[in-house]
Amino acid sequence: MVTIKKYVYVLFMALFVVGMMSSCNPIDKINELKNSLLGDETEQVDEDDLDEDNNASSSLSQSSDGEEYKAEEPQEVFVEKINIDSKDFSIQVGQTKQLKVKTLPEEYDEEVFWRSSDASIATVDTEKGVVKGVNEGSANIIAYTSDSQLSSSVMVTVTPKSNPNYGTVNLGYGTYTGDLKNGQPHGHGTIVYSTSHKIVNSADYYAKRGDKFEADFRDGRISGGIGYWYHDGDITAINP
Asked: Are 121 and 134 in contact (CB under 8 A)?
C-alpha cells in the first residue's frame, strides 16, 4: 500500500507540472484527480508540501548555518629547497653544458631562472640553464626561484680551446700567445715582452718590459700588415 501511495504521489507531482501549464489552479486539478482515483480518504496535496520538496533540494547547496557552500581553492605550492645537479665544472671556450635543478617538492607553481655572475666569461640561458664558455676565466652560474627567493650556484671554469695549432711559446725576450705552426708563431698572435727588445728594424719601435705587440706572423717572424704596439697607455700602429 505504501508503495502504491508513493507511486501515485510521484504521478501527481508530474501532473502538477502539467497543471502549472494549464489555466486552472494546479493544486485543485491534482486533488480532483486524486479523489477520482482513490476516493476522499486520500491526502490532499498542499502547496506547503510542494514548497518543502523544492526547498529540500536547494538546501543541499547550503551549509548548516545557511551560507552557500564554496569549494576550497587549491593553494599555490612554493619551492622549499633548490640545488643544481652539478658540482663545479670546466668547459672549453665555445663548449656548452646543460644544467638542471633538483627541488623540494618536485612539483611547484613558481618559476626557476638562471643567470651568470660574469657573462663575458660564461653565459647561461635564462630559462633552459644551458651554459656556454665565452672566454678563459671563472664565473658562478646561479639558479633562483621567482617567488620563494631561493638560489643555488656552481662555478664554471672556462679553458682555451684544445688546439695543437694554438698556444703559448717562450721567445726568450717575451712570450707569444696565438696561432702556431711547428711550434712557432704563425698566424695571428700577441707578444708580451719580458725584457727590452726591438719590435722591428727601427730605433723608433723599441719595446720595454711589459709592452705588448699584436700582429700577424709567418714562420716565427712578423709578416706584412699593420701591427699594434701597446706601451705607456698608448697604442701605436706599426707597418713592418
From this structure: yes
Strands 112-116 and 206-207 turn out to be: unpaired
**Is the pLDDT score of 38 beyond 70?**
no
Provide Rg for the chain, Cα atoms. Answer: 45
CB proximity list for 173: less than 8 A, separation 6 or greater: 193, 194, 195, 197
Three-class DSSP category at 29:
helix
Q: What is the per-residue pLDDT across 159-176, written as a single tens digit (0 to 9) for each?
A: 887 777 888 899 999 999
Q: What is d(CA 238, CA 18) in angstroms, rounded to the nearest whole number?
A: 108
Count of alpha carbons within 13 angstroms of residue 79, beta-carbon side: 21
CB 176 within 8 A of CB 190: yes
Which of 146, 97, 161 lies closest to 124 in space, CA to CA? Answer: 97
Q: Mean pLDDT score of the chain, rounded to an integer? A: 81
Give yes or no for a contact between 175 and 167, defined as CB atoms under 8 angstroms apart.
no
Q: Grid coordinates in use for 231?
A: 706601451
β-pair partners for 151: 144
